[in-house]
TrEMBL record:
GO cellular component, one term: cytoplasm
Positions of the Response regulatory domain: 3-117
A Pfam family recorded for this sequence: AAA_lid_14
PROSITE patterns: RESPONSE_REGULATORY, SIGMA54_INTERACT_1, SIGMA54_INTERACT_3, SIGMA54_INTERACT_4
Domain of life of the source: Bacteria
Gene Ontology MF annotations: ATP binding; sequence-specific DNA binding
Gene3D superfamilies cross-referenced by the UniProt entry: 1.10.8.60, 3.40.50.2300, Homeodomain-like, P-loop containing nucleotide triphosphate hydrolases
Keyword DNA-binding recorded: yes
Keyword tags: Activator, ATP-binding, Cytoplasm, DNA-binding, Nitrogen fixation, Nucleotide-binding, Phosphoprotein, Repressor, Transcription, Transcription regulation, Two-component regulatory system
Top-level taxonomy: Bacteria, Pseudomonadati, Bacteroidota, Bacteroidia, Bacteroidales
Modification 4-aspartylphosphate, positions: 52
SMART domains: AAA (SM00382), REC (SM00448)
Official protein name in the record: DNA-binding transcriptional regulator NtrC
Amino acid sequence: MSKVLAIDDDSIIRTLMSNSLTKAGYEVITAVDGESGLQKVIQEKPDLVVTDFQMPGMSGLDVITEIQRIQPGLPVILLTAHGDVALTIKSIQVGAYDFIEKPLQMQELLEVIRNGLEISYQSQTLTETISPEIRKAIEDNLLVGKTPVMREIFKNVGRVSLNKVNVLITGETGTGKELIARLIHYSGITRDHPLVVVNCSALHEDILENELFGYNMGAFPTAVSDKKGKFEQAGEGTIFLDDISELSDTMQTRLLRVIQELEFEKPGGDAPIPLKARIIAATNKDLEAMVKNGKFREELYYRLKVFTIAMPPLKNRKDDIEELVKHLMQKLNRKLNKKVLKIGNGVLDLLHSHDWPGNVRELENTLMQAMIMTRSDVLEKEHIVLLNRNTPVEPEQFELKSIADIEKVHIKKVLDKLKWNKVEASRVLDITRPTLNAKIAKYGLKHN
């Protein structure tokens, strides 16, 4: 019979776990705080520990850290009512087997315990080969989301950030693939080293080759000085290859060789340069289908997808919309020098009703436009302009709109709506009449 230690300062939670786990066939021991829990780890030698995060004295993270010191490999599940991205990643980094948010769903807890015990028993039969150094937690949340799929992604970020395996991030345009790459980089062992971003679709093959590998002076007639390539610039950090599916066959071959040999040659150089950086690649295409169609090298595909993270479209995680809106409003307030602090009635219902073909990027652009339009500290429903669901527009078009473009369109709409009554338009736009005249001139607006 497996022995489970439950640590929680809430007597109701302890009783609930004890009764449910006993009924499921486990021997259960309990502790009221971290200090007494660690004593029972030493005395009772449990097979698995479930601990609360926020307790008097030692926190759950402190308990996990100490357990990993005195009994490495003992699976620990962290419970919390205060979950966020940073805490999820930190718990995985310090050694938690899994992370569960309260209120407890006993079926979920029992499943996690069962899986944790199974993996623990398998681990005990193997020889330990690695002992990764745990880095400090990230200080900023670069992404938000509490839906199960996003919680699992954040756990995986915590796991993969502690080593340098290659990572392939897949997902539609606008789902946040680059943000995940940055989160992996800044969460773990690479955070003190450079993050270098390369857009594989933005450069011609010859230019991309020079950007990736660099060159020494004299390597070709126009090489009048030495140039460090992106692989060299990344050092022991991360090189993020966005739109990896757009690489030519020649560049795919060269990249495969770099990954295989863990070194690269710099044109005009005397010796190969070791590759010390981790490679994270991203794509919005189906690489597996491209492999089958002969458009992407199979061996490169498998070399890149050592660890895969699939970003879900926003329409599949609509429960995250409210949290995303609050997060993006804070970000946009800083960017736009605004103070839009409240969400008006009906706004969230309207946003939930949309399918978001451009995903989080479309949501951000929609909020940006609405926040520019608002005259108060309230994000109003009347300022939310959504893409017509029946109009096929590529999500990439959202990337091309500047704040000036949005402002120009909005000012023209207001003027036309008010039949070019500039006094009323100035009031609606919350700007002075001279400012309105200046913007009319700047954007070349004319009365129809």
